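Forgive a beginner's question, but might I ask you for the amino acids of a protein and the C-alpha cells describing how it folds?
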Amino acid sequence: MITTKTVLVLGAGASMDYGLPSGLELFQMVVRNLTPSSFNERLSFLESCKIQSPHVEAFWDALRNSGCSSVDMFLEHRSDFREAGKLAMAFEIAKLENNNQLFNIDKKGNIWYEYLFKKLFAPFDEIGNNQISVITFN
C-alpha cells in the first residue's frame, strides 16, 4: 500500500513499453487513420458520438496542417476540436489495449506498471486508502 502522498504525472511515453504509442505516434495514427476521403470505422465512431462528418474533416485538416507533434498539443489551442480529438485518440488507444502486454510474465525492460501494482496491493476494502493521484495526458 502507498502511504506517502504521491502524484504521478504521465505522458504517452509512459505506456510505450506496453504496446501503446508515443504522443507523436498517436498523432500520426490519428492523421493517417482518420482520412475523410473514405468512410471508415473511425469516422463512423465519431459520428455515433454526435460529431458530424464536416467537423471531423475540419478537425483532420487542421490537425495534419498544424505543425504540432501531438494531438494534445494541438487541442491546447483548438478547443473547438477538443471533443473530436479526445474521441479520436481514445479510439486509437482502445484498439491497441492488450491485457497480455500489461501482464506478460516474460516482459523484459521497463516494468514500472508491475512495480506500481505491487505497491498499490492491499485488501480489497482498503485499496481506496492508497495515497496516490495520477495525472495522465492520455
Observations:
- Helices lie at 23-33, 41-48, 53-64, 71-77, 82-96, 99-102, 112-120.
- The mean pLDDT is 88.
- The radius of gyration is 18 Å.
